[in-house]
User: Which sequence fits this backbone?
């Protein structure tokens, strides 16, 4: 018996966007088998008689091409069996295997990538994709759009939209870079053609040349913070400790400091993998940092697997999302307390946990430590360049350089 091949709108399933999947249905001997095209359509934009989207569908040409191409592949395979006078079952049709998604919408794909990153524990990076998607959504009046709409003109208008709102160059760079990364992902997953690259003639150099204002303190200002009187256990007390610990530990990031466990401290050294780069750091603990640790050893020690600082709780903050949300919340609170400390000390620079990281590098530079050793820690165009320089030196030389912080 002859088999029929038709494209249908699978109305028994409703997707998150309110659309129904477009399926290819093959029927033989009153039995049907469906294969997904990975694309969808609204009922009002689907021509049931033709088994195609209506010509007013924004992706009419792309969807029609996908449907016809898939139908042709299945029909050719069926014809091959027929010409050989062979009977066959639907399960034998190799062309009925699921077809990869080829026409996912841009913002829809952003949501997919964000979820994948979050599910894999890369919460911070997933947020970058979410913020970029939100900017594109606002730029495009809240509407989703296809990858085929992205070209040089689109990118120029998107960039001008940022500039017209006074967005900082550093932020524009992050949004544009993330948008380009998403397109790279889409190309690898066959959502766009292999040669699709709207960023081909887009220059990022103008953003890389812009140097952000260096936010750092002098050694005298650090000493003011060291001597700032605080009540043990208060928010300001913890904020000052976190700031100074970061400074004395080579500018350790707040997220990495929050995730330190007592098992990370061995024989006067601190060992940890940086969350962002997965690189192993081994740091000699300077006396001021050890004093801070001694305090928390008395007030916050539960076990070797417990957290060093009273930021995270092993019984409460379990999932990556819980950890990330908690760290963000505490970081905001700490920065608020640091702002109060700076105000009382007459420090004009707005104090944040990041200022401690930056101050680590610039204080060393002012002290005459070799630029090759510290590699201008925050002065490079990328942090990776700094890491490449630092990896070239042994712990002894880095330990000696760190002593200049006191």
Assistant:
């Amino acid at each position: 018996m002859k088999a029929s091949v038709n494209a249908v709108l699978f109305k028994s399933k409703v997707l998150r966007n309110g659309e129904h999947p477009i399926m290819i249905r093959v029927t033989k001997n009153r039995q049907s088998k469906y294969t997904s095209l990975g694309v969808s359509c609204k009922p009002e934009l689907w021509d049931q008689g033709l088994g195609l989207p209506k010509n007013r569908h924004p992706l009419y040409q792309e969807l029609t091409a996908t449907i016809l191409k898939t139908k042709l592949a299945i029909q050719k395979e069926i014809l091959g069996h027929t010409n050989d006078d062979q009977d066959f079952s639907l399960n034998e049709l190799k062309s009925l295997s699921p077809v990869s998604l080829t026409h996912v919408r841009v913002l829809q794909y952003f949501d997919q990538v964000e979820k994948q990153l979050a599910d894999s524990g890369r919460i911070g990076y997933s947020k970058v994709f979410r913020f970029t998607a939100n900017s594109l959504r606002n730029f495009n009046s809240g509407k989703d759009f296809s990858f085929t709409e992205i070209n040089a003109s689109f990118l120029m208008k998107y960039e001008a939209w940022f500039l017209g709102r006074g967005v900082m160059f550093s932020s524009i760079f992050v949004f544009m870079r993330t948008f380009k990364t998403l397109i790279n992902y889409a190309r690898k997953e066959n959502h766009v053609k292999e040669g699709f690259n709207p960023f081909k003639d887009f220059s990022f150099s103008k953003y890389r040349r812009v140097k952000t204002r260096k936010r750092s303190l002098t050694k005298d200002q650090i000493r003011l913070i060291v001597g700032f009187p605080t009540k043990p256990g208060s928010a300001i007390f913890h904020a000052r400790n976190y700031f100074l610990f970061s400074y004395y530990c080579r500018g350790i990031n707040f997220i990495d400091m929050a995730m330190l466990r007592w098992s990370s401290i061995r024989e006067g050294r601190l060992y940890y993998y940086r969350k962002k780069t997965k690189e192993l750091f081994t740091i000699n603990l300077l006396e001021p940092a050890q004093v801070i640790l001694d305090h928390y050893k008395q007030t916050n020690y539960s076990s070797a697997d417990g957290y060093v600082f009273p930021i995270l709780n092993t019984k409460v903050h379990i999932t990556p999302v819980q950890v990330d949300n908690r760290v963000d919340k505490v970081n905001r609170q700490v920065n608020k307390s640091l702002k109060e400390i700076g105000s009382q000390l007459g420090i004009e620079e707005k104090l944040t946990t990041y200022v401690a990281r930056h101050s680590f590098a610039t204080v060393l530079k002012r002290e005459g430590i070799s630029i090759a050793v510290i590699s201008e820690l925050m002065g490079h165009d990328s942090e990776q360049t700094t890491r490449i320089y630092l990896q070239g030196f042994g712990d002894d030389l880095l330990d000696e350089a760190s002593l200049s912080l006191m």
